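User: I'll paste a sequence; please echo it back and then give the predicted structure.

Assistant: Echoing your sequence first, then the prediction.
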Amino acid sequence: MTLGQNGPVLRSNIKSIDWSTFGVDLHLEVDASAGRRLAIENALRQAIRSGRLPAGTRLPSGRALAAELRVARGTVTAAYDQLVAEGYLSARIGSGTLVAGLPQSRPPAVPPQRRAPKFRYNLRPGSPDVTAFPTAVWLRATRRALAVAPATAYDYTEPQGRVELRRALADYLGRVRGVRAAPEQIVVTSGYVQALALLTRVLADLRSPAVIAMEDPGLAFHRDVVRHHGGRVVALPVDAQGARTDLLSTPDYADVHAVVLTAAHQYPMGVTLHPDRRRAAVTWALDRDGLVIEDDYDGEFRYDRQPVGALQGTAPDHVAYVGTASKTLGPALRLAWLVLPDRWIEPVVEAKRLVDAHTEVIGQLALAEMINSHAYDRHVRSCRLRYRRRRDLLVRRLGSLSARFAVEGVAAGLHATIMLPGHGPSELDLLRAAHARGLALAGLGDHWHVPGRHPQGLIVGYSTPSESAYPAALDALVEVLTNGTGKSNAMGAVA
């Protein structure tokens, strides 16, 4: 710095100062662009943090430093006082200003990260082909929705969800899935998991402990969600006619308050709930004042028969219907919906308010526009044709193996279950062989409530890969099933 007519003039923002005349050699980077006092503070703070000014180092007096920097003495004093207050410096009468000894903290130990294995081919169930997301359609719907949306749409909104989407859903669900719903009965959630969590939480508040029957086999993660939110899970067996809802009226299930059913397409076995079982579920709910939670996760996708209407349409006062856009559009949207019996609306809305206030709004408005313009119907029909072709190709490719493996649940949905023969190869052996070939699959074993001697199988999500990757993924699947547990070399090919 040099002195100008009105005080120090900065030749450059960063100035190197050597204090060789103060008893110590010190190089200090002073960036005066932030102001003189802050520049001195930042320069000293950085020198102390980096260790270039160790504890006990005596600093020049405020007068001397001010003279060297050609600033007011009060500027340096204020900088010293601030650093003393922060613990970087200590000032004692007769000892001058010293660098304080900062505590040396050891960085917390970071647990080793388990990296998920990378696969060349992904046939895990649970996801649609996200490369088919209708980007152009979604953009048009968003533009149209935002063009007419009120300014209040960008503010906090009601926990129940935007009325535009609830009205659109009431019409769509009645027309396509046979759901009896008014907009006032619908709660928009950020996915099926949140819907299940809200229902469990309300049940736990009303009836503690909340005992919920869940299909066996079924998705283990959903059982974890119920337990985490205060529910107790009991297993409800599944056979060739679907969940054994006829057991709900027996003494073994006397404590059950609710039952979760994938009635249209049981996950993972793929069976549709038999009409007798549907009636048994409704009868139980009426007799015991129980709640049926209907998970209609892929109800739009039917290939070889007419769609089966939602169970909710037969008992709207005792069925909580849950639908989602995760399979039709994509999980990233985080949009799902609950259709509730009247008495469940208020407690579920309040539980939603306490969880996250409300689901994001822009996606709700865009989806409402897609439904109202029938762009959503067109997209679903397009997906249905695409996934049917994939299903057909899967069945043809596995046709030569039909003597060894039974393929179940292919009349609907987005996955198929390959049942394994009792004489081998085992589920674990085939999963290992698939892993060695870079193929991701799911096994039936993880879906049982209690480990033990259960039927073994592989669950194939034929909706997951992109169009271009699907044929090669099927090649890998057929190779695994054909060669069984053949040893693979380092390149992942069968030796």
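The chain has three domains: 2-99, 133-378, 381-483. Residues 437 and 491 are 8 Å apart (CA to CA).
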